[in-house]
Amino acid sequence: MKKLKKYLLYSALPILVLAIIFFSAGIIFPIISYESKVTVKKPVEQSFRVFTDVFTFSEWIPRFITIKWLSGKQNEIGSKWEMTIEQEGKEYRMTETLIAFKENELFAFKLENDMLTNDVEIRFANKGETSEIISSNHITGKNIFWKSLFVFSPSYFKQQSKEMYDTLKKVIEKSN
C-alpha cells in the first residue's frame, strides 16, 4: 500500500506542477498582443473601400460564412454585427462592435465570443499610390483556462492574421 501511495504521489506531482505553471501563465500574462502589417499596391481609398465592403469578406476572411447586422449602421461607432465562421466543421459566432472609425484611416472594433475578447485597431496609411494596413490585436481569454491557453499560442494568432491580411492584399490589388 505504501508503494502505491508513493507511486500516486510521484505520478500526480508532475501533473500538478504543470497545471500550476499553465494556469499561472494566464494570470501573469492575461493579454496577448500582436501586429500584422501589409503594403498594398493601391491607393489608401481603394484599400479602405475594399476592406469595409461586406461583400468581399468571403474572399479574404478565412472560413467566413455570413455576417448579420444587429444594430446601428455600417461604419457607425457603436454599431454591432454578428459574424459566423466555420472551423473544423463547427460554426462559431462572434459579436463585433465598432469602437472607432475614420474613413481611409482607422477601423477599430471589439470582437467577442464565448472564449475571448479581441480589441482590434486597423490603421490605413497613405503612401501615395500604395497604402499600408497595420492591424493591432489585443486578445484576452474569457476565463483563466482560455487566458492560459492563449499565452502558449500567440504564433497561431499571428499566423492566422498574416494569412488573412496577405489575402486581403491580393483582393485589394485585383479590385478596380
Biggest sheet architecture? 7 strands, antiparallel
Strand order of the largest sheet: 1-7-6-5-4-3-2
Counting copies of identical and different chains, the oligomeric state is: single chain
| Inertia-based shape | elongated
Q: Give the low-pLDDT segments.
A: none
Give an overview of the whole structure.
The protein is an alpha+beta fold. The protein has helices at 2-28, 44-52, 57-60, 144-151, 154-174; strands spanning 31-40, 64-71, 80-87, 90-102, 106-112, 116-127, 130-141. It has a seven-stranded antiparallel sheet. It starts with a helix and ends with a helix. The model has no long low-confidence stretch (mean pLDDT 94).
Q: In summary, what is this structure?
A:
The chain has helices at 2-28, 44-52, 57-60, 144-151, 154-174, and strands spanning 31-40, 64-71, 80-87, 90-102, 106-112, 116-127, 130-141. With 176 residues, it is of the alpha+beta class. The chain has a 7-stranded antiparallel sheet.
